[in-house]
Amino acid sequence: MRDSILILNGPNLNLLGTRQPEVYGRETLNDIEAHCTQVGDGFGIGIDFRQSNHEGELVDWIHEARGKHAAIIINPGAYSHTSVAILDALLSVDLPTVEVHLSNIHKREEFRQHSYVSRAAQGVICGFGSLGYILALQAQAAEIKSKKQQAMA
Ligand code: DQA
After folding, report:
1. Cα 11 to averaged position of ligand 1 atoms, centre (Å)
2. What is the CATH number of the domain that holds 52?
3. Which ligand 1 atom lies nearest to the CA of residue 12?
4. Ligand 1 centroid vs 144 CA: distance in angstroms?
5. How many CB atoms are located within 10 Å of the residue 40 CB?
6. Range of the domain at 20
7. What is the pLDDT along the chain (153 residues), one digit of tens a residue?
8. Catalytic site residue from 24, 79, 116, 133
9. CA torsion, ordered 124, 60, 90, 92, to nearest 10 deg
């Protein structure tokens, strides 16, 4: 069975395309999902792409990822700046995690400049719009490959 990556999106990201396009771009979440699926196919990796406006649902999905997915990519949206629960969930499942933001959170309001989730992330990509998801996928595909090579050595 091929490896898969769970890509999680937090609140309000379902509105991409029409939500503050000057900040978040004109692509919809469906566009981003289609692109991730295509790039994932190229790496031989399946993509489970989800969005929720509910913190607990995101926590549940992170728990379910253990034993099911090889890695996580997450854009936690506003929960980045508030959610110890999502941080704890990510620390509990101990899967390689990359955090993504469409906008450069460090160039924006002060309250966006801290992310709880970053403490559980191998890396954070922000400011490159939807390209950030693809960069995160490349990073995770490399991580999965190197883990496999280590396991075979
Ligand atoms: C975001 C940045 C967050 O501050 C904001 O609450 C979002 C989107 C981004 O992708 O740039 O919802 O995570």
Report:
1. 9
2. 3.40.50.9100
3. 12
4. 27
5. 23
6. 4-152
7. 899 999 999 999 999 999 999 999 999 999 999 999 999 999 999 999 999 999 999 999 999 999 999 999 999 999 999 999 999 999 999 899 999 999 999 999 999 999 999 999 999 999 999 999 999 999 999 999 999 899 988
8. 24
9. -170
